[in-house]
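[Q] Does anyone have a clean structure-token version of this?
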Amino acid sequence: MNKTRELLFSVTRKDFVIEPFKGSGAGGQHRNKTMSCVRIRHPESGAEAIGTEHREQSKNKRLAFRRVAESKRFQTWIKIKACETVYSKKELERRLNEMVDRLMRPENIRVEIYDSEKKKWVKENVERSKDNLSISQGS
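[A] Here you go.
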């Protein structure tokens, strides 16, 4: 079975803000006087990472790109962007409403209230109308 892949969207270097800066701390004159450290931001997702471990800017840039790509914020943005690309906003809302309707069925909801007089938990019946849930005391 051969599955073909379709490109949904692309993220290029132009989508990132690359900011070189001088390092500080241990490393001597080379570290303190050259712009070997790199901060990379992806403004659309809010993801940000830095690379300061290496003496070469190119290695720090690769490291920072890898960190941005692996960040939770960037990964979440990718998933959201892919969904927006595949489905229209109305379709996403419809699917979400279907999911909520499925989860909010009375058989999926269990309500128990502690009766202090009887000193035990009492099950409640859950009934659902179109717009709300009602709870009544069970037998």
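[Q] Thanks! Anything notable?
[A] The mean pLDDT is 81.
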